[in-house]
């Protein structure tokens, strides 16, 4: 399959996109939304960058590596912010982002 | 051009997607984010549905009409919520959503 | 979690989006691209609709059901076309589309 | 408005995304699809990267510049391929891609 070599990174990105969307939607329903505003911003960017990184790798695009490099930056920033909050959705998001960052950094290397 | 017949609806959807993204991002930076939480939720859905509706029409997809029908629902819900808030980004969003809803309802008819 | 009830449908849609992208990209690299043109069109629409359906369910959007109804239509059309072609990527895509259609039809019911 | 400074680049990216989608869909309906296969691949990547670049700028994301840097690469590659083909949709796409590349290169600088 044309994208078999990217399989673990595609899966990490697809998973991270969904976990970030879940975190953003959950943050929006917290009582103290203000405290979560930066988290929501970073979740949204990370979700969209992960989704597109997964798609580009799936297509075996020549821009996959470049995209993974940005995606890793988004994941690191999102993980750092999410790690500050104790809610389950933030802790799960920090974990998925770190795992995705590692996969993307390997791809970009 | 294969999609010339959809031109005004494609433009309304593309424009509405950007205006909804602007509104969501602006709401997240308001002092009272809590008051804007529902607006942000509706902005996000509306932005994503408008963007995909524009893409499907651009491709002359056979699901364009169905997509415009849902998109109009998202636009109506977002316009109603945005109209409650006095900020410029919300008022601009309500207007773009109403215009897009009208175009999408014509397409879906 | 706010979207736990949609878990199996979110997973089916996420998986189907990636499998459709793989199929489209693989079709484009076949010797007889002409024969695959309709398959590529349907793959692309199905991939994008599945991806957005997954996102809307993840957000617990009130338009999730409507979106799943369209998504099921896209999956059925794509499965029917892919089933005509013997390549592994088409057969895998037909299977993922049928599974996703079933999940989406349950959601939309 | 939070993204007024990016206005011309957001517009160039939004426009280029739609023109690339139109080109891909039109290429798929040409008699000699095989000859257009590489064009379709590049159109798709360029469309998706432009769409996300527009969204990130709209949100005033801190990754906007990085994204515009990749987006410019996609636009240059797509313009080069499209310029080889005489069809109106390819010539229009080459032009939109060059204009978008210039805007994105200014942003990334």
From TrEMBL, chains A, B, C, D:
InterPro entries: Csp_YhjQ (IPR005560), YHJQ-like (IPR044543)
Pfam families: Csp
Domain of life where this protein originates: Bacteria
PANTHER family recorded: CYTOPLASMIC PROTEIN, CYTOPLASMIC PROTEIN-RELATED
Name this polypeptide is given: Four-helix bundle copper-binding protein
Organism expressing this protein natively: Stutzerimonas marianensis
């Amino acid at each position: 399959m044309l994208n078999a070599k990217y399989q673990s990174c595609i899966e990490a990105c697809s998973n991270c996109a969904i976990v970030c969307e879940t975190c953003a939607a959950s943050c929006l329903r917290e009582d103290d939304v203000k405290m979560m505003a930066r988290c929501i911003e970073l979740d949204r960017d990370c979700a969209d960058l992960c989704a597109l990184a997964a798609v580009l790798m799936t297509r075996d695009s020549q821009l996959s590596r470049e995209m993974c490099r940005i995606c890793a930056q988004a994941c690191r920033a999102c993980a750092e912010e999410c790690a500050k909050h104790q809610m389950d959705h933030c802790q799960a998001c920090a974990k998925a982002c770190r795992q995705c960052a590692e996969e993307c950094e390997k791809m970009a290397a």
